[in-house]
Amino acid sequence: MGIPHYMIVDPRTGTIEVHSEPCRGRYSSKEPYIFGDSVPFGAWTVETSEFRRYGRDG
User: Strands across the sheet with 15-23, in order?
Assistant: First the structure.
């Protein structure tokens, strides 16, 4: 679809993957992060310190 950046957030594990550089229907770059990281996402930075995990208190 030509989406330049794609972010997958998994609140069960507290992990994030940022996919970029689409080429032939796939992304040629995949960067892993965890909740609490400052995640570069194209021209933006996503602060994830307030992201909450499933099954955790608080």
Answer: 5-10, 15-23, 26-34
Rounded CA-CA distance 18/58 in Å is 26
Report the candidate in 25, 5, 4 with the shortest Cα–Cα distance to residue 16: 5
What predicted TM-score, i.e. pTM, was given to this entire model? 0.84
3-state secondary structure the chain: CCCCEEEEEECCCCEEEEEEEEECCEEEEEEEEECCCEEEECCEEEECCCCCCCCCCC
pLDDT in tens, 23-51: 888 899 999 999 999 999 999 999 999 99
Q: Which residues contact 6 (CB under 8 A, 6 or more apart)?
A: 18, 19, 20, 27
